[in-house]
């Protein structure tokens, strides 16, 4: 149950597009289409923004999109806004009925 | 609207036990699998475990297996996390979260967390 690998930080200017990566292994990301992404503002609970690799929950902006290739998943935030500044975490179902999170990426706008 | 409210956190000495509770509202509790997740101060999210809708199945992270026990009482609409033999590394904010209806390992609603501090 090793953590997924995310870059510690990412940044972009308002209106720009930024992509955050999430690298796992054949025991998690590479073998299952159960990758999720969460947004967490300081002092707040995480919020689900992507599930099942590419699906957006109701109410989540379509500026958030995601994909997966082999052992690597990616979250893309387009048209950056000030409120997008937050920590972002990926997660994946892993073998033995477990869930593993990435270390988190701090996005600065 | 869906709400999850955790309680039971506090300051506890190393080696002692603590039980956390999570009170859901705004949805049919017995229809959802539930998770516990924690976050150490200034650190990332760590999954602790999952319990199925009826409590039949429970899965745990290796880091807490054998020390932590997840249970639920659907008649009382309550989720629990029993934590034994606590160590300083167990300090953190503990969240309960609901599993998304179609994807047990996606967490679509989270509580605000309850803080556990393990210190002598």
Topology:
The complex is a heterodimer of chains A (109) and B (120).
Chain A: E1 9-11, E2 18-23, E3 35-40, E4 47-50, E5 64-69, E6 72-77, E7 86-94, E8 98-101, E9 105-108
Parallel strand pairs in A: 1-9
Antiparallel strand pairs in A: 2-6, 3-4, 3-7, 5-6, 7-8, 7-9
Chain B: E1 3-7, E2 10-12, E3 18-25, E4 34-39, E5 45-51, E6 58-60, E7 68-73, E8 78-83, E9 92-100, E10 103-110, E11 114-118
Parallel strand pairs in B: 2-11
Antiparallel strand pairs in B: 1-3, 3-8, 4-5, 4-9, 5-6, 7-8, 9-10, 9-11
Q: Could you explain the architecture of this structure?
A:
The complex is a heterodimer of chains A (109) and B (120). In chain A, the strands form two sheets. In chain A, strands 1, 3, 4, 7, 8 and 9 form a six-stranded mixed sheet that branches. Chain A has a three-stranded antiparallel sheet with strand order 2-6-5, with no helix packed on it. Chain A is mostly beta strands and 109 residues long. Chain A has no helices and nine strands. The N and C termini of chain A lie far apart (32 Å). Chain A has strands at residues 9-11, 18-23, 35-40, 47-50, 64-69, 72-77, 86-94, 98-101, 105-108. In chain A, 0% of the residues lie in helices and 44% in strands. In chain A, a hairpin with a 2-residue loop joins strand 5 (64-69) and strand 6. Chain B has strands at 3-7, 10-12, 18-25, 34-39, 45-51, 58-60, 68-73, 78-83, 92-100, 103-110, 114-118. Chain B is built from no helices and eleven strands. In chain B, the strands form two sheets. In chain B, strands 2, 4, 5, 6, 9, 10 and 11 form a seven-stranded mixed sheet that branches. In chain B, strands 1-3-8-7 form a four-stranded antiparallel sheet, with no helix packed on it. The relative contact order of chain B is 0.31. Helix content of chain B is 0%, strand content 55%. Chain B is mostly beta strands and 120 residues long. Classes of the chains: A mainly beta (109), B mainly beta (120). The A-B interface holds A 1, 3, 34, 36, 38, 40, 44-48, 51-52, 57, 89, 91-93, 96-104 and B 35, 37, 44-47, 50, 57, 59, 61-63, 95, 97, 100, 102-103, 105-113.
């Amino acid at each position: 149950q090793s953590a997924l690998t995310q870059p510690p930080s990412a940044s972009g200017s308002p209106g720009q597009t930024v992509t955050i990566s999430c690298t796992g292994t054949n025991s998690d990301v590479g073998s299952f289409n159960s990758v999720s992404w969460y947004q967490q503002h300081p002092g707040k609970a995480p919020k689900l923004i992507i599930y099942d690799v590419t699906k957006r929950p109701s109410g989540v902006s379509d500026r958030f999109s995601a994909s997966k290739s082999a052992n690597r998943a990616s979250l893309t935030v387009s048209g950056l806004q000030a409120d997008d500044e937050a920590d972002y975490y990926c997660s994946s179902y892993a073998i033995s009925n477990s869930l593993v999170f990435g270390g988190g990426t701090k996005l600065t706008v | 609207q869906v709400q999850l409210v955790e309680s039971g956190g506090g300051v506890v000495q190393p080696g002692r036990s603590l039980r956390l509770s999570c009170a859901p509202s705004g949805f049919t509790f017995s229809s959802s699998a539930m998770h516990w997740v924690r976050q150490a101060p200034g650190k990332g999210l760590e999954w602790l475990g999952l319990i199925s809708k009826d409590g039949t199945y429970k899965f745990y992270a290796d880091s807490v297996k054998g020390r932590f026990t997840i249970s639920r009482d659907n008649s009382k609409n309550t989720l629990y996390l029993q934590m034994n033999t606590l160590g300083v590394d167990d300090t953190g904010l503990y969240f309960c979260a609901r599993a998304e209806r179609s994807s047990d390992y996606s967490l679509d609603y989270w509580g605000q967390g309850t803080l556990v501090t393990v210190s002598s």
